[in-house]
Amino acid sequence: MKIFVYNYREFDEAEYFRKFSKEYHVELGICRDDPTLENAHLAEGYEYISIITTKIDRDLMKKYHEMGVKMISTRTVGYDHVDIDAAREFGIHVSNVSYSPECVADYTMMLILMSIRKMKRIMQRAEINDFSLPGIQGKELPNFTVGVLGTGRIGRAVIRDLSGFGCEIYAYDKYEDETVKKHAQYADLDTIYRECDLITLHMPLFEDNYHLISREAISRMKDGVIIINTARGGLIDTKALIDGIETGRIGAAALDVIEDEFGMYYYDRKADVLSKRDLYILRGFPNVIVTPHMAFYTDQAVSDMVKHSIESCLLRDEGKKDPWAVV
Fold first, then answer.
1. Which residues does the annotation mark as catalytic?
2. Residue 27 contacts by C-beta under 8 Å, 6 or more apart in sequence?
3. Based on the domain organization, do 112 and 48 belong to the same domain?
4. What is the pLDDT of residues 214-248, one digit of tens each?
5. Are residues 216 and 123 located together in one domain of the fold?
6. Structural domains in the chain (count)
């Protein structure tokens, strides 16, 4: 079997691609760049393609269809960067992957603690030997009521971790999980917005939850609410978030993802002028932490992502049930 791999990273993924391609007897084609119309021809002769968080729009999907591609596997949990409607139109299967939820859960807890202890300000001051106290007094997590939006594998891991701090926890999901009820109480969004001091997002992005955290939703939240997002940028209306921070309605935010981040992260862009005005504004606030979509990035997660992408293609090729199938 042959798989063509775009966005192949020598410094972290390569060892796992070598390991699992040998284990599963898979021949790999390799391109270190994003898939584009200009380099699509490199996958000629391959029925299976593996990508990461790069845009696959209708034109590119059509091109791959014309080349005989049967399936695109994204080495990510989210797949909002792939035009699913176009995939259905052209009969191309799409799959994602899963990985240990601990990587994002750990990172979420780190961002929560950094936010409530005002760690960004502390670190900035320490860099210039400003060891004064005004403005950096933190809060303690056991005194918080926390809302967890999304109780999939990652959301459940975050709830488990939060329970050890002794805070009150509310959870929201369309589909309730019985294991969550040991540590948290399911509630509707109105209750969470009204009662919670901190809200953390752990949902995939779909049309029906795009801008779930909207201007109207923020208006219903407690003054000084803290918002954490390690899921997808499109869950939050960025301009409404900025306004909420400026007015003080939002006391702090920690964002590992932002809207319109495609094509920016995982590259050295320090010499570039980025057309990401909202990103510059957010990074300028002393009470906002922005990290470049790094919550997933551990050795275990990278191994899982490569392995599951290969396994997904193999299962499809063998006509077996694929647990990662999207389309």
1. 232, 261, 293
2. 1, 2, 3, 21
3. no
4. 999 999 999 999 999 999 999 999 999 999 999 99
5. yes
6. 2
For the chain, what is the largest distance between any 2 Cα atoms, rounded to a whole number of angstroms?
64
pLDDT for res 214: 98
Q: Does residue 88 sit in helix, strand or coil? A: helix
pLDDT bucket at 110, cuts 50 / 70 / 90: very high
The confidence band for 262, taking pLDDT boundaries of 50, 70 and 90, is confident
Looking at the fold, whether 14 and 41 belong to one and the same domain comes out as yes
The answer to whether residue 140 sits within a structural domain is yes
Q: Does 326 map to a domain?
A: no
Domain carrying residue 94: 2-99+298-317
Q: Are residues 150 and 237 in the same domain?
A: yes
The mean pLDDT of 187-193, rounded to a whole number, is 98
Q: Are residues 45 and 143 in the same domain?
A: no
Contacts of 29 (CB under 8 A, 6+ apart): 2, 3, 4, 5, 42, 43, 46
Q: Fill in the DSSP letter of residue 208.
A: G
| 229 to 52, 202, 233, 303: CA distances (angstroms) | 20, 7, 7, 24
- Domain containing 224 — which CATH number? 3.40.50.720
Is 185 within 8 Å of 145 (Cβ atoms)?
no
157 and 42 share a domain? Answer: no
Rounded to whole angstroms, how far apart are CA atoms 53 and 7?
Answer: 9
Q: Is the pTM of this model over 0.85?
A: yes
CA distance 60 to 68: 13
Cα 47 to the center of its chain, rounded Å: 28
Q: 286 with 190, same domain?
A: yes
Could you tell me if 92 and 327 are in contact, meaning their C-beta atoms sit under 8 angstroms apart? yes
Alpha-carbon distance of 1 to 22, in angstroms, equals 11
pLDDT at position 177 is: 97
Give the pLDDT of residue 266: 87
Phi, psi values for residue 241, rounded to 5°: -60, -45
